Fold:
Amino acid sequence: MATLKDIAHQAGVSISTVSRVLNNDNSRRISEETRQKVWHIAKSLNYDTSSTKRRGPIPKSRGEHVSDMKAVGCILSLPDNKYNHPYFSPILQGIETKLHEEGIQLAFIHTQAELESEAMRQALLQHRQLNGLICIEGLNRPLYDWFKQRVPLMIGIDVADPDIPVISYDRVNAARTAVQHLVDLGHRDIGFIGGEGLLGQLEREKRFRGYKLAMEEAGLELHPAWIINAKWEADQSYELMLHLLRTNDNYPTAMFCASDMMAIAAMRAVTELGLSIPQDVAFIGIDDIDFAKYSSPQLSSIHIPKFEMGYAAAKTLIDSMTNPFPFPFRMLLPFTLMGRQSTILGAPLR
Structure:
């Protein structure tokens, strides 16, 4: 079954652009050439553009039909419109897959930057009655509260709201597991690359807390010069890793990176300076994006079930439409350590 991601890949545009075209969303300007291209590809892939068509009956125990829903939306925490994001795209694919199984399509996919204007948000809701919304990661508080007051049902993916169902993974323990992997390999000088959370404090970000906890448990010292706040940007990770290596004769033997994209960028800095991975500096990330298997060497990472989180969020939304849960819950999906060549010399390809 074709997905929005398939159409976006062939058209060379973002998933959110495809969503807007197929849902006649005029909140952002899209050229007529792009619109025609998206519709042509959707037709060639036999993509079902019916927003309410169901593929089968709802069990009677659920009550009313899900097809009675008018719209389901999705908001990403991305600050701007990044195309084919390696972390968020599998989550969106999981959401879309489950909705398609129920004969439903996403009414829209927006980043929080695209919804900064209240006039745009008002226009978005005027064009449709939004019955459900999936929020992926933490949005800024005013934007989140605005939608929460106007949408009857919200599901979060890794958001901090005790009042709604949330699908997530244990970020602190995922980071702790990554650092423990380095400790088990004999590393004692371990640095960190990451970014701040919504609170704007690196020390309170969960993956940094997991790094710090693992270091304390191993009795290892944290060196401030080895802690890099790259603000979640790959370019910053690359530049700051270069700076660390050029200005410190005593540099870490291993780096824990709070995302794979930052890890891959920092690895390039190491190799450009003629150092070897993992002999001189080992690397491990979090997310296990597809690119992790194609970096050189292959990046060790913590596999996060991205597709499954999206699928579970969509299922929770659908179930809540017809049979609301008696209380909010937080579902934590398991993560898996993927040891590869960036930490284990001679590790088999995987």
Notes: Confidence is low (pLDDT under 50) at residues 51-67. The domain at 4-169+306-332 is CATH 3.40.50.2300 (Rossmann fold). The longest helix spans residues 306-322.
